[in-house]
Structures are given as structure tokens and as C-alpha cells.
Amino acid sequence: MGLFKKSAPSTPEDNGYASKEGASVFGTDNNAVLHGDVPIGNIGSGVRDASPDVAGGNVDEFNIPVPPHTTHAKLMRRIDFHVVPFLALLYLVAFLDRINIANAKVFYLATDLNLTGVQYNTALTIFFVPYIAFELASNILLKRFSPRVWLSCCGMGFAAVTVFQGLVQNYGGLLATRFFLGLFECGMFPGCFYLLGMWYRREDAQRRYSFFFSSTSLAGAFGGLLASAIGKMNELRGYSGWRWIFILEGSVSFIICFIFLFTFPSFPEQAKWLREDEREYVKARLRADQGNNAAERKVTFRDILTVMKDYKIILGGFMYFGLIVPAYSYAFFSPAIIATYKYGTIQTQLHSVPPWATAFGFSMIVAYFSDKAKHRFLFTIGPICLPIAGFSMLLAIHDNLHAEYAALFLICAGTYSAMPVIVCWFSMNLAGHHRRAIGVAWQIGFGNIGGIIATYAFISTDAPRYTKGYAICIAFVLVSAISCCLYFAALVMENRRREKAVRDVGITEYEKTELGDLNPDFRYML
């Protein structure tokens, strides 16, 4: 795929191509990596094509043998084609089924179901109860059943519930369907991010992460377009337009997820579309970047306690938590905000599309330059400034519809471009299956508590100015910015400490695997 360029591979720790003594078949001393002479995660930079070695075989610039029948660039394109589009499409339909209730509300869902007061907000909130409670368990089950089986079955589950949501007759039925929607969707985001982290090195990852995450922006854009078209089916076969939104979108999601049950990608160790030497090459690159990942190792309760003692893990949760409030506030309430600009129902849906489309393009630009610079911190702080400016404009401006509408672009573009960088930055700084599975599930699970706050930030009685909601969003964006600064400082201090420490401390390969990113040879990406 032309969107994704290759980045420099690195020397593996023990990639299966090395001899017993640690010298590779091409004369490279792999023990330099094993014993800390070359820090894991900080081996080199630059992008160069594979080149022939003295023995005539193809090796990359760090002497990792490339399978003789292919090249690094061709292999990365195959991986991109088999992994990224599937994850992006799965999360697109998941996010679309999650937020289409906002479009349905414009077509009189609340009126037809006789919702009063904050009942609509409560229906949004109930989604997050199972979504937060079962995210960690879902990641553990993902590892046990394989992503293809687990994520596809969960996808069929949330798609069926979405269809049922279009058939509810009262408030109680809406609450029940939103609860089960959250239950089936709880593993989508952390599971997909976790799977991406098992395929790509940190220097290769951000554009893939952002392309995947930007499916949320596409879902928002498609949601508005689809709702504007489906809404015209009002009273077809006796169903209101908002019911058809749920029924049709849920049906399409179910068909897609059923196909995924047979085609969805799994971990590199399980990829049947790769040859054995290709799998070894992919795993060697990952080991060089992150150490051994212990894919075969089960996650235990003791692992959870150990990982959660690391204060950097806690900071990762707050980085994401701070942005979830404005993200879900925008996703759930932007149609209601736009409706206050005196547009009709169809025009409201259509005007919700451009900010989402802009967010997609901007997030890909941010991701490209973040990968180019091999840096994450500044590419979180920069975009975070945009929603602060956008919400400040909405607080101060009440008589200029063009300026208010422009503020929505800043909010959407800034929030939805900073979030994938934050999650990628945190996730790819966690080495090993167990630390990454636990850490990502914590970040996403804890962060989504912000979704509960977002559902009550914009109450109908606060319309049209929504002063309280805008102020709440600014406060939480600042929480995210401060947490990012603290996380950055923690990584800088830890890298400096490890540079000054004794390299060869006699740690065995098993101990390195258990330590993950706590391995003294590991260097955090800033």
C-alpha cells in the first residue's frame, strides 16, 4: 500500500538465523544486542533498502537476513494489505454502530421513545459500564482464542444488537441494547491496537495506527452521509427513519464481521499467508525493537499487579482519559450542537461530515511527520492545542455561525489526531505480549471512564450555548496535556538512567522476556 513506507529494520536478539555462538550466518555479532552493546529499541535510524552481503544473500542495513525470494519493501506491503485494512474496517463499523444514536436522535428517536430529562444521556452512559469493566478480560481472551475468532465474533454480536436497537419500543429496551452493545464492543479498540503492535516496529507504527484510528473520523463522516440518506426512508414499512439507521447499518456490519470470521488477520506466529522464513524475519525485527514478546506465555493475575505498579502505566491512562471526554462529547453531541445553528434535519447531518473528513486528513499528516521524525511527544502536544482553541471559541462566540462552525473543525481535527499518537506512543513503549496486553487494556479501559463524563457534559437544558460542556472539555484536554508532559519527562529520565547504568548485568533471556520494556537494554521512544 503506497500510504505506508518502510522504516529501518534492526538486528534481532535471537532471530533464528544466528549460530550458537551468537554470530549470524553473515558474520554479525548478534550477542551485541543480547548483552546490551546495542540497546533494544534504539538500534539505528534511517531508511535504506536491503543490500547483498559478502556471501551474496540479501540482508538489511542491520544485517537481518531478508528471505531470498522477496524484499523488505514487498513484505511490508503484503503485511499492510493483510492487516491494516481489516482492522480499520472493523473499527469503522464498530464506531459507526456506537455513535449512530446521535444521528438517530436528530430524526426524533427521543420523541418516539418518550425520553425525558437526562434519559437520553443515561442511555449513552450505560454503554460504558460493560465497555470499561470487560476490556482487560477481552484482551486476555483475544490472546487465547486468536484475533480472527474473538474480534469477528464480538463484531457479529454488536452488529446484531445494533439491529435490535432499531426495534426497541421504550426506554428500557434502549438501555438493554446499549448495555449489550458496550459488552460486545469492549474488545474492539484495545484488541485492534494490541494486534497492530504485534506486527510493526515502533518506527513503522504511527501511520498504521493513525490510519486505523482515523476510521473513527470516517465513521463520523459516513454516519452523517448515511443518516441523511436513510432518514428519507421515514415511515417505509411503518418504521421511522431513525429505526432504519440502526437496522441497515447493523445489518451491513454483521455481514462484514461474518466474512472476517474467515479472513481476519491474527498474530505473526499464526499468519498462514506468510512463509516460515517470512514469519521468522518479521519476528526478528520485532525482537530487535522490543525484545522477545513471549507470545506463548499466558497472562496471570500476578502479571496484572506487577504491571500496574509502574507509574508510567498510570500516566498512560490519564493521557488517554483526558482526550476521551472531548472525543465522545463531539461524537455524541456534534449533531445536536450543529442543530442549534438552525439547520434542518438533513442539513444538520450533512454539515456534520466536513469536520470529520478534515480530521481524517489532518491525522494522517500528523502521523506521517511523527514517523518521519521518529518522535511522538511534540505530535501530541501540538494537536492538543487545537481543541483548547476550538472550545474556547465556542465559549466566547455566540453570534457568528461561521466562526462557531470553524471551531468544530479545530475540535475534531485536534482531538482525533492526538489520540492515535498517544495510544501508539504508549502501546509501542510496552514490550512483550503480557505487558502490552495489560497496559493497553488499562489505558483504554480507564480512559473510557471519560466517556461516562462526556455523556452528561451536554444536557439538553444547556442548549444552545452548552457553556458547562465546553468548559468541562477544556479542563480534561488540559489533564491530557499535563499527563503527556509528565510521561515524556519520565521516559527521558528512565532512558538517561539506563544509559548510565552497567549494561551487562547477567540477565538471562527468560528474565529479559519477563521484564519486557523494563529490560535495562530497552530504550523508550520519545
From TrEMBL:
Concerning InterPro entries, the annotation shows: MFS, MFS_dom, MFS_trans_sf
Kindly report the protein's main subcellular placement as a broad class.
membrane
Q: Where is this region: Disordered?
A: 1-21
The annotated topology with respect to the bilayer is: Multi-pass membrane protein
For this UniProt record, the keywords arranged alphabetically read as follows:
Membrane, Transmembrane, Transmembrane helix, Transport
What are the subcellular locations of this protein? Membrane
What PANTHER family is this protein classified in? Answer: MAJOR FACILITATOR SUPERFAMILY (MFS) PROFILE DOMAIN-CONTAINING PROTEIN-RELATED (PTHR43791:SF46), PERMEASE-RELATED (PTHR43791)
* UniProt-recorded name of the protein: High-affinity nicotinic acid transporter
According to its UniProt entry, this protein's organism is: Sporothrix eucalyptigena
According to the entry, what is the taxonomic lineage of the organism?
Eukaryota, Fungi, Dikarya, Ascomycota, Pezizomycotina
